[in-house]
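Retro notes - structure team

What went well: the batch runner handled both jobs without manual restarts.
What didn't: labels got mixed up in the shared folder, which is why I'm recording both outputs here explicitly, each with its sequence directly above its tokens.

Job 1
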Amino acid sequence: MMATTRPLQRATAHSIRALATQSSSSPSPARPRLEALRADLLTVDDFLPDSTPSSSSSLSQNRVVFTKSKAQRLPSYLKTQVPVSASYNKIKNDLRGLKLHTVCEEARCPNIGQCWGGDKGDATATIMLMGDTCTRGCRFCAIKTAKLPPPLDVHEPENTAEAISRWGVGYIVMTSVDRDDIADGGASHFSETIRKTKAKAPHILIEALTGDFQGDKDAISLVARSGLDVYAHNMETTENRTPFVRDPRAKFRQSLEVLRVAKEAKPGLITKTSIMLGVGETDEDVLETLKELRKVDVDVVTFGQYMRPTKKHMKVSSYVTPEQFDHWGREAERLGFLYWASGPLVRSSFKANELLKSVLGKRLIKGMKGRGQDVDVMGQDGERRTLEGVRA
């Protein structure tokens, strides 16, 4: 029995090898169809931009070859120094001790050294309220997100007021993550922090940089009437680019309404916004955005370069030149903004104390008609100059 089985096994194995050899040497009827199908499939070339060098066309259609696309080099004018100063270290240590957050750190702001390291009275900082986790996910923002962030810290308003009163800063910006999980978007928490800070340090000027509170007019008005000096809400980009840059819940027209309602809730309140450049906007779009902002009587606008925080975020569309930033600053002035700041490294809160001095100075001049007095103010380009009182 064993003798019969072994020759049979050898014969079967031989037959299988022969069949395999025959099938590989003679084309199968299905092979031409398979090759035609492969030819119709998309290859890596189909996903490469037109500007990619022609060498990419040599990629095999039968093998996927991964290539690294070159990122645009960072222009020299966008590089900053590592921050080192006594004021910087003091602010940083106090934040850690009181478990507070700043957008300066969370959003990786390039100006942190200049703002925190300024002389006493000139240093500024941007406190981020309501935690370090946002309920929205804008494509440009480095702040972490979650559908349900941790509960609010009930001690945060008091701790924030205590920290700010220690620092000796002349101007503070309070901002926050978006908290769509809270009924009023955190407006009552925001306004309580402003009131407690003013009570502890009445000399400090406060700017509130808020979210849109989902368009809730009562929430916007509550913050606007809380004792702040400047109400800021960032448009971020033009109307055409908003769907591609911001979270779907953030609407261009809704943001305009926030700025309008804030001014309506407290007439005379300084309102401010910021626009990123380099995210695919056109000149026509930017100009139209500025005109829309003037329709709702916004006083201050800043322009800055979008810089990609990580590879997970949207790419930089273009690096805007300093000359182009100057152009938009002049356009803002021509359209009637009381103050503008425009430059590659400018951020919403950059040298925020200077803007208030400038705006208040200009308003003072308007009230001095016929007096012929002079007043020293900060110009839009950051230079201090003496302006003559306007004579009737």
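Job 2
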Amino acid sequence: MKKLPLQKLRSFVIVLCCALLTVINGNARAEETPASTTISSSAKSAVLIERSTGMILLGHNTDQALPMASTTKVMTALMVLEKGNLDDVVTVGRNAYGVPGTSIYLSLGEKITLRDLLYGLMLASGNDAAVAIAEHIGGDVATFCQMMTERAAELGCDSTVFVNPHGLPASGHHTTAYDLAMIAREAMKHDLFREIVSTSRASIPWEGRSYNRILNNKNRLLTQYEGATGIKTGYTKAAGRCLVFGAKRDGLDVIGVVLCCGDWFDEAARIMDLGFDQYEQFTALAQGETVRVLPVQEGTQDTVYICAEQALTAPVPKGDIPILEYDMPDILIAGLEAGDVVGEARIMLGGNTLASTPLVLTQSLATADYHYHLRQIIEQWPLSQLPLAE
């Protein structure tokens, strides 16, 4: 898909009343994030973001670098989903066998699928599963951790460094609440990840045993908070209680993080309650929704439909009235392809762009050549005036 230079010939500004909105989840990107609402928190660091845009809704010391204990495993899981083959059979090595802390009790030489390791990683928080995953995907733990850190940087998480794949205390192993929320946001794009982290209990095969491993999720929010979607608990003495959490209500989908928080579940619930009380989801356009019919010059057709490439949606403070702004040319010249970007739609509030989506052609625009014009002339010529053979 090629992008065309945008000629700002006309902007259409439509004020939309929030009370009449239909709430639809979308994937428009956030261009500019308005200043977040600072809150006090019992956590050293906390943040709440909206999932589709990544916009900060609420925050407390969001950029403070801190250890994150087993919430590290959100990135470990993301690497599995992006780099691994879930059907691979992994042979448990000596480094994974007997790793301290929480475990799924892997045996040396045991064979287990990468998919089952992922369940053991995220539900039972197995440190042994984390090392087995790291060695399988990265070849060794150090290489895998470098891959994790580089992937975090690609997501804009420049304050995050991974020294191990499980989160046990290690010098230089740290993140921020905001970085970790953005990593979780990326992981939540994967169906399997969402399925696993929203599961309270599961079982996986146990080689050499007549019964399965039972995996229990320690995240109490799944059963105690309406709309909870996950995501991961973590605790070490050095990091304190850490929690990545999420919920969805009335179309508003949020992800949050608390780091070093004694009352982690209560504080997570309180922060989400604040978010749901203060914000609502504003949906301006559905994916593929027609925005306008534009005239076409020098082509075989006179007009073409322009539509939203992605759903255009963003969280807005309750009571505020956002603006939908279109930026597109008055006329298109033939020669463009279906899917070409010819404009942009933006949700604006207080001078800030909350979210935007490209506007694209719904069909290709063929250029009218000599033969096309000749056929048009012949078709429009009155039959009575056509020369007849003698």
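One thing worth noting from job 2: The chain has two domains: 10-24+286-370, 37-279.
We'll revisit the folder naming next retro.
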